[in-house]
Amino acid sequence: MSLNYAVQMRTHPRRHQSGMSLVELLVGVTVGLFVVAAASTLLAMQLTDNRRLMLETQIQQDLRASADIIGRELRRAGAWGTAVESVQSVWRADQGSVQTVNALVSPTAAPSDTVTFQSSRTTGQPNYGFRLLTGGIETQLNTSTGLVWQELTDRSTMLVRRFVVTPINEPGGQLVCQKLCVVGSTLTKSCWPTTMVRSFRIEIDAEAVSDSSVKRSVDTRVRLRNDRVRFDPALPQSCPT
Fold first, then answer.
1. Starting at the edge strand that comes first in sequence, how are the strands of the sheet with 136-143 ordered?
2. Distance CA 107, CA 175 (A)
3. How far is it, in rounded angstroms, from Cα 88 to Cα 90?
4. pLDDT at 59 over 50
5. C-alpha distance from residue 70 to each of 107, 127, 221, 239 (Å)
6. Are strands 181-183 and 186-188 parallel, antiparallel or unpaired?
7. By three-state DSSP, how is residue 101 classified?
8. Secondary structure element (H or E) that encloses residue 199, with its range
9. Neighbours of 202 (CB within 10 A)
10. I want to staple 191 with a disulfide (CB 3.0 to 4.6 A). Which of 121, 133, 195, 235 is the partner?
11. Within the chain, where are the H helices?
C-alpha cells in the first residue's frame, strides 16, 4: 500500500454508514408501541360496542316476543266456542241470561302486575294468566295435573323490572230486547243491556342480566275480541219477559 493511499484513508473516512443508531431504534419502538396501544384500544371499544348491541337486540327481541304472546292470548279472553248454539250464548234477545261465562278478566279497573282470564278454546279448566314474579314473567297453563305457572321469560338473560296491565274500558252500543222495560208506570229501554269495549295496555321494562345498563321497554295495547255485556245494577239483570 502506497503512502499516499494510506494518508487519504486517514484524512477521508467513510461517509456512508449502514444501519440505525440506538436513539433511532428507541424512537421507532416507542412509536410502534403507541400504534399498537391505539389499535388495541380501538379493538376493545369495537368489541364492547358489538357486545352491547347484541345484548340490546336480544333484550328487545325477547320483550317483543313476550308482549306478542301476552297480547295474542289476552285478545282471546272471553271466547265461548259454542256461542251460537249454546243457551249460554253471549247475547240472545229471547233469553234471560246474556253474559258469557268466560267474560270476566282481572284486573277490571286498576293497573296490576297480574292478569287472569278465561277462554273455552281448550277442555278442562279454562283459566289463563300472566304475572310478574322475581324478575320474570310467568304464564298460567292447563296441564294434566291442573293449573301451573311456567316461565315465559328467561331470567338468566333478562330481568323484568316492571310488568303492568292496565284495563281501558270504553262504552259500546245498546243491545235490543224484545220488550220494553216497565219502570214504575213508564215503558223505557233503560233495562236493556249495553256492551263495554275492553282494551288492555301492556307495559314491560327489562334489563340484561350481564349488563344492567342495557335497558329496554315495550308498550302495547290490545283490544279484546269479546265485548262484555252490562246491565244497570239497579234494574233487573235480564230482558223483560
1. 114-118, 127-133, 136-143, 146-151
2. 25
3. 7
4. yes
5. 15, 14, 11, 35
6. antiparallel
7. coil
8. strand 194-208
9. 20
10. 235
11. 3-11, 22-74
Side chain identity, residue 4? N
Nearest of 201, 208, 206 to residue 70 by alpha carbon: 201
Length of the chain: 241
pLDDT tens, residue by residue, 167-209? 999 888 888 888 888 877 888 888 788 888 899 999 999 999 9
Question: What does the pLDDT read at residue 85?
Answer: 47
Q: The whole model's pTM is what? A: 0.70
Q: Is the bond leading into 107 cis (omega within 30 degrees of zero)?
A: yes
Instruction: Indicate the pLDDT class of residue 69, thresholds 50, 70 and 90.
Output: very high
CB 137 within 8 A of CB 204: yes
Residue found under cell 499516499: 4
Cell 330481568 maps to which residue? 159
The grid cell for 214 is: 342495557
**DSSP conformation class of 227:** P
Question: According to the model, what pLDDT value does residue 126 have?
Answer: 53
**What residues have CB less than 8 Å from 39, skipping those under 6 apart?**
none
**How far, in Å, CA of 75 to CA of 80, rounded?**
13
Whether the CA torsion 68, 69, 70, 73 is positive or negative: it is positive
DSSP string, 146-198: EEEEEESS-TTTEEEEEEEEEEEEEEEEEPPPSS-EEETTEEESTTS-EEEEE
